[in-house]
Amino acid sequence: MTTSEAERLAMQRALAIAATPGVPMGPNPRVGCVLLAPDGSTIAEGFHRGAGTPHAEAAALAEAGDAARGATAVVTLEPCNHTGRTGPCSEALLAAGVRRVVFAQPDANPVAVGGAGRLREGGVEVVGGVMIEEAQALNRAWTFAIARRRPFVTWKFATTLDGRSAAADGTSRWVSSRAARLDTHRLRALCDTMLVGTGTVLVDDPELTVRDEVDEPVTDQPLRAVMGLRDLPADRRVLNDRAETVHLRTRDPHEALARLHELDRQHVFLEGGPQLAGAFLTAGLVDEVVTYVAPMLLGSGASAVADLGVATIADAVHLHVTDVTVLRGHDGEDTNVRLTMRPTTLPRRT
Ligand code: AOF
Ligand code: ZN
Question: Which residue's CA is the nearest one to ligand 1's atom 6?
């Protein structure tokens, strides 16, 4: 079945409103919906504003009222078929008399699945897969977490040009520039979980919150997760009341991610030290790498990542660069390069 030009334009609009800024980070995907009259004009639109609020379809139907009868609903995600925090959109669309539904991404969420089938049973024409890549990109971590049953992992680290995260005496402050640190806070805010090991908490005592340029309190803080078997002393900054914290008493990356998945977490920002990074890489649990490279040489000092068991060049772990950005400081001295990459090979298991 084909879609009209008006429906494709409506899908573009639905994707744009789904991404409206200001929606709190949460377990739910971002979804947009546009209702079209038979002549292709827009009757109403709606988007999802976060867990517990009406779904995009419900928001658009509420705005349309009786005008929804005979309309086409253009939605970025397959309408849900479940009663969760709100009611099933499949039933709401049927009750409103919508004649046709065009959606982008199928909903693989086991609790919500089945909307397209239910709508077809009810006599509605349904077309799926329209602009599916754009819809998946909009909810990259959600899509990943539903499909893989674990959160997407971004490993971030700062390094000198010679791959070191600290000098020989352990000092590491200001390996990354001010611009790189601000950029890190921006990326942290896009994730729902910060993850480090107990070692990092004991040695560096990071707060692991998102701060903006003027250090104003950010209300929607990611969860702080600390993994490892050692206890966390009560005076550690990660235990302050600026954000929620969980201690995952395991050293196994698979187990830590399974726990975070149970907690409805979809995007982990891994900021631990070389050991934790090595454990996640070796387990094949790093999905994206963000590195800030400082134009600085140390010649000695800790490596940014622990031994991966690579003894010969043929065993090197390869990454594919997806973005290179120069983060310029005010004076030109303080400039870092940010590399965004995805691993293409794993360390060879010995
Ligand atoms: C949304 N917004 O516009 C649509 C969703 O937590 P609940 O009960 O609201 O259900 C969330 C699930 O519903 C979500 O994971 C997705 O599978 C489906 N559709 N969710 O948050 C929406 N259409
Ligand atoms: Zn719904």
Answer: 85
